[in-house]
Amino acid sequence: MAKILVIDDNLEICNLLKRFLTHKGHEVETTLSGMNGLEFVKKEKYDLILCDFKLRDIEGPEILQEVKKISPETKLAIITGYSDVRVAVEVMKKGAFDYVVKPLIPDEILSLIDRAINTPTVVDVKKDIVSKKELKSINQQNFGGSDYIWGKDLASKNLLKEVSLVAPTNFSVIIYGESGAGKENIARTIHNLSERKDKPFIPIDCGALTKDLAGSELWGHEKGAFTGAASAKEGQFELADGGTIFLDEIGNLSYEIQIGLLRLVQEKKLRRIGGVKDKTIDVRIIVASNENLKNAVEKGRFREDLFYRFNEFTINVPSLRERGKDILLFANHFLDAANMELKKNVLGFSKEVSTLFMNYEWPGNLREMRNTIRRSLLLTDGKEVEISAIPHEIVHANKFAFREDNDASKSHRPEIVKKPQEEAVDLKEIAAQAEAEAIRKVLIENHFNKTKAAKQLGIDRKTLFNKIKQHDIL
């Protein structure tokens, strides 16, 4: 049972909520005035305050500020109209627990109350922000997985601070970042630092879900629901119950699937395809995109209401070229992993290779670096990785880089000293290098799925295999 205060200048909403929530066993008080509501808070302790965003005497954000001063442990949720959702999200960033949109849905209100009772308060969360000692511990425990480490540069430290702040909450999170920047590792770290760490973490590549099978994969299906459904199947959301689900490249989901996802987020219920019963689930949703979802909303490709449901907290993962001295830290981490995998004992990189790594743009980010180092180690017989073992398109990237350099982003990198013999390169060689780089880039983007890569390049699979062999692309 929760003790709840409803502040709304609409008498009908106050009476409706009081009758409904009292019937559900909660203790409810109501008031039509924001100032009166603050007086209530001074006299009583409430688990949750449901406060209208726009009141006649004082607005919801001002009430939030005062409640945090009077009773920091009390959670406050904003009641808002659809047109004010954007502002409500901003209020959440200032400390509101959640928001609900009119017209009010009974199950959504009950779900909000349940989460309010079982979620640590903001005061508790602040205690969980990691210290310098804990930052080191997180690096050592490898919360993000074996392919990821936390760096020491300012960009890495700021990223980890954001992760440690949101991890103990139940906030939905949008993670933005370029392909290969480590978005899934960030999501996994959030899960592993949360109270859900002992429950499943299920990553899903939305770009790999076909329109026809996406519903079955996410919600599950009953036997006979469609042709080929020989038996019932649990969906990924059912499998993730109690834990975290990570939806990578969320913008690739069809509009129909987005509608089903919105219902699940709002009501915390799902129904299998072909099913007749709803199942209540408790899943934290983390989504990722290399495109700003707000732009996708403006273009009509992503539902606005779903965007605001997910946009409770945003994390921007810096690209590898923005990680400063951590570039070489990551390189040595992947070197150690490759040594173990290939049973080698290469001690490091030559000075020329280190300088090259600091200057290279790394369009494929960590994924590209990992693959580059594995390939280079395979070609290395000595104690250091030499420039001769590095792929040609990386060594000569400056010769066919057509985009403008961002001087600000390269301010920390030493310049490569070009050898005289590198200056004279014939057009045929440059064309071959450019083709090799284009093929490698598309392969990286498609996780080395050759069928998808060939389709994107506009060639058949056999031609792609021949070109991979021709250019020695591992």
Automatic annotation (TrEMBL):
CDD domains: AAA (cd00009), REC (cd00156). Pfam families: AAA_lid_14, HTH_8, Response_reg, Sigma54_activat. Residues 3-117 form the Response regulatory domain. The keyword Nucleotide-binding applies. Residues 149-378 form the Sigma-54 factor interaction domain. It comes from the Bacteria. PROSITE patterns: RESPONSE_REGULATORY, SIGMA54_INTERACT_1, SIGMA54_INTERACT_2, SIGMA54_INTERACT_4. SMART domains: AAA (SM00382), REC (SM00448). Keywords: ATP-binding, Nucleotide-binding, Phosphoprotein, Transcription, Transcription regulation. The modification 4-aspartylphosphate is found at residue 52. This is Sigma-54-dependent transcriptional regulator.
